[in-house]
Amino acid sequence: MSTLNYYLDIRSKRMDGTSQLKVSVNTKAGNFLLAVGIYLQPSQWNSTLHIITNHPQKAFLNSHLTNLMLQAEQLLLFEQQKAGKALSKLKTKKLMESLFCSKQQVKAGEVESVFQQFAKDNSKKQRTREIYGTTWKKIKEFVGRESSSLSFDDIDLKWLRSFNRWLIPQCPAVNARAIHFRNLRAVFNAAIDDDITTNYPFRKFKIEHEKTRKRALSIQQLRELRTMPLKDWQRRYVDCFFLMFYLLGINGIDLLSAKQEQVVDGRLEYRRAKTGTLYSIKLEPEALEIINRYKGKKHLVNFGERYKDYTQFMAKLNNCLKELIPGCTSYYARHSVASIAAELDIPLDTIARMLGHSDPSKKITLIYVDFNQGKVDKANRKIIDYLFSDTAEVKEEE
Questions:
Q1: Could you give the CA distance from residue 374 to residue 380 in angstroms, rounded to a whole number?
Q2: Is 73 exposed, middle or buried (0-12, 13-18, 19+ CB in 10 A)?
Q3: What is the pLDDT of residues 277-330, one digit of tens each?
Q4: 24: helix, coil or strand?
Q5: What stretches of the chain show up as alpha helix (H) in DSSP?
Q6: What's the N-to-C CA distance of the chain in angstroms?
Q7: Which of 6, 113, 363, 386 is the most exposed place for a label (fewest CB within 10 A)?
Q8: Cβ neighbours of 123 (radius 10 Å)
Q9: Helix (H, G, I), strand (E, B) or coil at 223
């Protein structure tokens, strides 16, 4: 029977330096090569082991090539037994062309492969990788058993609309569904860049968005939350919420990952995980009191030290807050800082700096050393004083 091996034909190269991967078929009547529709850099092919290496889709492609080779050998054996004699070179070539030269040969499973590539990309933040993984899980649930063979050509406008309808009961919020569709669109764009597909159903599919509702507590709600009788386990979560508030609405991942050594001259200095923005926040007495009460062994505070990752603690924090104030989550700390700052007539420019936003007039990335940090410190002190004040208003300092 004929013997087969994969072979990277480097005799001719494309402009990007890749060459065609071919299958070498050896028959008694002669040999021939067939392209299998895969292009590789020389560094991505191990000619000794006949496998793809150093390629972002190596697992998927090697699995595909192994299955293809197995099908070829089974087909040749079946046809030879059927004919009762060795197959001619012409017959063998026709059989192999029908198998290896199919335009759809690398289509099955390509969507899953690219999603896995995104979910394992270490150049992306951990949370971003997790969200891509979540989107793929939703697609798997929607498609069912056929998800492992889903190709980009299978996804058209009708498919996207159907997926959106299926998502609605699970993700009632329009913006929550939009995240999944943006992730899918990014995967499509990557697949197009890698010449995996030319299909692009997002030309006609509009990803819906809605204005995010304000997620802020009023000053009265904050005062009630601070003074309400709490159980010990609830006090821990409420203290964490107010520490986030006293630290200008610091994000959960930044607070729980902060180390003791990041406190320099009475200021917490860190870069926000989400944006990389540099923060330097003065630790007011109210913040220090909570930090000292929950001082961590490895971190600034011990809130998340017994959990595998920060998301587990944040989930419990949010569940507790929702029981105390319906709808409230940790995000309300950040939004409340901005809302109360505006209520106190703190300039919008200072509020933007407090939150780490771009300069509203110059549209430049925030760098605190280029701004009078004292303005942010005074604004934060003013907000905290307002919280602890019994009066309805706090006069703005001249």
A1: 10
A2: middle
A3: 889 999 999 999 999 999 999 899 999 888 888 889 999 999 999 999 998 999
A4: strand
A5: 58-83, 89-100, 110-119, 126-143, 157-167, 174-193, 219-227, 232-246, 252-257, 285-293, 310-324, 331-343, 348-355, 373-388
A6: 94
A7: 363
A8: 6
A9: helix
Report angle CA 135, 150, 62 to the nearest 5 degrees: 100
Report phi then psi at 277, rounded to 5. -70, 135
Tokens of 260: 């003791």
With a cut of 70, say whether residue 397 has pLDDT above it: no
For the chain, give the percent of residues with pLDDT over 90: 49
pLDDT at residue 102, rounded to an integer: 55
Structure tokens at 269: 């200095």
Strand arrangement, sheet containing 30-40: 3-9, 19-27, 30-40
The type of residue at 216 is A
Distance CA 187, CA 152 (A): 10
**Inter-CA distances, 80 with 27, 89, 94, 127, Å:** 12, 12, 14, 54
d(CA 322, CA 252): 16
**Closest to 178 measured CA to CA, from 208, 200, 141, 155:** 208
Q: Is 110 exposed, middle or buried (0-12, 13-18, 19+ CB in 10 A)?
A: buried
Neighbours of 209 (CB within 10 A): 11
What's residue 251's pLDDT? 92
Q: Compute φ and ψ for 40, nearest 5 degrees.
A: -135, 155
pLDDT tens per residue across span 33-81: 888 888 889 999 999 999 999 887 788 788 888 988 998 899 898 888 8
pLDDT band at residue 396 under the 50/70/90 scheme: very low
Has residue 87 got a pLDDT over 50?
A: yes
Pair of tokens at residue 110: 């390509």
Tokens standing for 398? 């001249």
> 3-state class of 302 per DSSP?
coil
Angle, alpha carbons 164-166-167 (nearest 5°): 65
Q: Under a CB-based contact definition with an 8 Å cutoff, are residues 324 and 238 in contact?
A: yes
Q: How far apart are CA 331 and CA 216, in angstroms?
A: 8
